[in-house]
């Protein structure tokens, strides 16, 4: 089960006021989709806001160990009885902690019940507002979600920070003083407990104990690495596996950096007139919060993986390094290993960096690398397209969730040696390009030639290549195999030539397109060993029915194992509801499709005239009779139907793929 879900709730009327905070919080807590192998935190975040026609949002229905709900409240919500009732109902959600954020002084009037709880006061912030609010929010994530001591949440359960700096040299000393003053002279004294070493203080048990329970900020100045006590502080922090960040304050140069000071995030700041700008100070505090949360989050995730791996397994929240050797080898005349395997968080580092450990016979993995080649030779298809945005909003999602899903599928399926098969157009910034970017980086990281994708294109889509598309097709040559499926022979007499692009702007042209798309889908799925389906638009398609729906039916007909991820909305969700609850959504009826897709009724008539009637009642019955044959139990498939968590979905998919 996912350790923690983060939920952001706001009134649509306050969109202008809160949008910058929503975007900033998302950026700080999420993996950057454009930097697929960045070493960042990646918490599951869900968004709930009332849409047109609804006065309040849906209540979150999430299944994780803990749920942390931030609700932005201002006069627009405080003046609404329905919003007052809605906010009170949030407090009834199991395993949830509610953190109200006051946008103005009227927020406290939203309900009598909520008045008893402490608010984050956004309206009192004057400078660096996004940073200050994020630090307040991140502090609650640490306290509620990843409080190492498992203390009762209170004003005393603050994150401890250890400031490691040289006691000579004004730059390091100045920034240490500024950080302490910022913490001590503001509301952040509730969030941080900063420890420092007075000049000449003995490095004894008290200092070691401080480091044992602190997150460490290395203030790296020109003289830092040359100081004995600074080195000892780093060694202690690494020995006790503490979260660490480095502040880069190098003014001119250092002749040698202490080697054990590496392998941690670095924040660059400048000192002007002996001071660091206030925004940079907040940036430092943001980064130590993020690294602390990341450290504890991946520790929980790695513990789940560790339980699956046989042998003596050591988990590490940073990539392994030389200073870790005493943890891995027993003392004695002969080299005797304490552990057979090491697991550390994604992304994988280059193999040369840890070659010294591999020579000792230690196997080293990230979650992506574990199980490498277990899917070697398998051809796994993926069907993902965006549903309507309002449908995603009803489950607290947006398009980023599907992008994240496609990236994770690419990483884990390709990383285990399978070929990924995808049928789609070649739009820039589309899913095909995202999959290619993932595959390129993965191929480079894993030092393998056995990673590639196969993309199927139907006639006449492949005739519409732009120069830009041709450029990136050339760029990914060797990684991507293009399969261009020609026009369906049964409709070739309806076009003047198959050498020119045909626009689907008439019923006859749409019919030609739909027949060619069906042919491409049959060819593609015949060459798949399994198919993963998520999302799926219900309107605006160019086939004889929604594309992902047709691919599900074809896969079932051909006996291809299916993995249906209904938690990500779209037509796949409707299929899962039909299978699980025997509830037939409107999108699976001819009447709804004909009323919501202009010209579709005429297209169906065209099929009927050709003796190929598209019968939606028959379609529904075929869906009810799907034999998944995917290596998962009925219970596991039903979890897959409903989960909104990418990690949980990937875990089940891999379990199934490895058993078929």
CATH class of the largest domain: Alpha Beta
CATH topology of the largest domain: Rossmann fold
- With strands numbered from the N-terminus, the spatial order across the biggest sheet is 21-20-19-18-22-23
Q: Ranges with pLDDT <50 over ≥5 residues?
A: 197-202
Number of domains: 4
Radius of gyration, CA atoms, in whole angstroms: 28 Å
User: Gap between N and C termini, in Å?
Assistant: 24 Å
What would you say the CATH architecture of the largest domain is? 3-Layer(aba) Sandwich
- Sheet bearing the most strands, described? 6 strands, parallel
Assign the structural class, choosing from mainly alpha, mainly beta, alpha/beta, alpha+beta, or little secondary structure. alpha/beta
Number of helices: 22
Q: Average pLDDT, to the nearest integer?
A: 88
The total strand number stands at: 23
Q: How much helical structure, as a percent, in the residues?
A: 25-40%
Shape: globular
């Amino acid at each position: 089960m996912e350790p923690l879900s983060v939920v952001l709730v706001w009134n649509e009327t306050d969109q202008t006021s809160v949008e910058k905070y929503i975007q900033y919080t998302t950026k700080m807590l999420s993996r950057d989709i454009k930097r697929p192998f960045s070493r960042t935190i990646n918490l599951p975040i869900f968004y709930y806001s009332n849409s047109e026609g609804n006065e309040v949002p849906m209540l979150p229905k999430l299944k994780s160990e803990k749920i942390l709900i931030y609700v932005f409240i201002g006069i627009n919500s405080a003046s609404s009885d329905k919003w007052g009732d809605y906010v009170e109902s949030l407090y009834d959600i199991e395993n949830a902690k509610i953190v109200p954020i006051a946008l103005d002084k009227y927020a406290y009037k939203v309900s009598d019940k909520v008045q008893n709880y402490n608010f984050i006061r956004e309206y009192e912030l004057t400078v660096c507002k996004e940073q200050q609010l994020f630090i307040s929010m991140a502090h609650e994530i640490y306290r509620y979600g990843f409080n190492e001591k498992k203390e009762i949440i209170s004003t005393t359960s603050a994150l401890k920070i250890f400031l490691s700096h040289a006691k000579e040299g004004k730059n390091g000393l100045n920034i240490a003083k500024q950080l302490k003053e910022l913490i001590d002279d503001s509301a952040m004294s509730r969030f941080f407990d900063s420890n420092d070493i007075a000049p000449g203080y003995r490095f004894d048990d008290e200092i070691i104990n401080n480091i044992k329970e602190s997150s460490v900020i290395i203030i790296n100045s020109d003289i830092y690495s040359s100081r004995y006590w600074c080195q000892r502080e780093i060694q202690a922090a690494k020995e006790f596996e503490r979260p660490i960040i480095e502040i880069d304050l190098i003014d001119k140069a250092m002749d040698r950096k202490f080697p054990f000071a590496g392998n941690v995030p670095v924040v660059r700041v400048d000192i002007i007139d002996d001071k660091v700008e206030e925004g940079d100070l907040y940036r430092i505090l943001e980064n130590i919060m993020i690294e602390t949360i990341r450290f504890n989050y991946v520790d929980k995730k790695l513990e789940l993986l560790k339980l699956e791996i046989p042998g003596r397994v050591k988990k590490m929240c940073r990539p392994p390094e030389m200073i870790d050797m005493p943890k891995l080898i027993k003392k004695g005349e002969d080299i005797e290993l304490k552990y057979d395997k090491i697991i550390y968080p994604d992304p994988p580092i280059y193999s040369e960096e840890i070659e010294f450990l591999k020579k000792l016979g230690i196997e080293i993995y990230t979650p992506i690398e574990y199980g490498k080649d277990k899917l070697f030779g398998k051809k796994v298809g993926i069907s993902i397209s965006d549903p309507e945005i309002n449908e995603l909003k009803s489950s607290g999602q947006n398009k980023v969730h599907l992008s994240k899903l496609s990236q994770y599928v690419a990483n884990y399926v390709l990383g285990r040696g399978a070929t990924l098969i995808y049928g789609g157009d070649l739009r820039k910034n589309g899913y095909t390009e995202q999959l290619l970017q993932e595959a390129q980086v993965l191929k480079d990281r894993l030092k393998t030639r056995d990673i590639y994708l196969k993309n199927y294109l139907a006639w006449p889509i492949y005739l519409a290549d732009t120069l830009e598309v041709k450029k990136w097709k050339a760029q990914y040559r060797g990684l991507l195999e293009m399969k261009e499926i020609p026009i369906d022979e049964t409709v070739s007499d309806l076009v003047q030539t198959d050498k020119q692009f045909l626009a689907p702007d008439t019923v006859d042209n749409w019919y030609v397109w739909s027949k060619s798309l069906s042919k491409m889908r049959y060819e593609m799925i015949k060459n798949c060993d399994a198919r993963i389906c998520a999302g799926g638009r219900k309107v605006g398609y160019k086939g004889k029915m929604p594309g992902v729906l047709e691919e599900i039916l074809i896969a079932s007909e051909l006996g291809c194992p299916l993995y249906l991820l209904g938690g990500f909305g779209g037509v796949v969700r409707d299929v899962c509801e039909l299978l699980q609850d025997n509830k037939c959504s409107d999108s699976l009826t001819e009447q709804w499709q004909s009323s919501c897709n202009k010209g579709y009724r005429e297209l169906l008539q065209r099929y009927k005239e050709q003796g190929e009637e598209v019968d939606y009642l028959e379609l529904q019955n075929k869906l009810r009779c799907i034999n998944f044959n995917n290596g998962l139990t009925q219970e596991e498939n039903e979890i897959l139907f409903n989960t909104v968590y990418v990690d949980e979905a990937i875990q089940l998919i891999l379990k199934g793929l490895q058993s078929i």
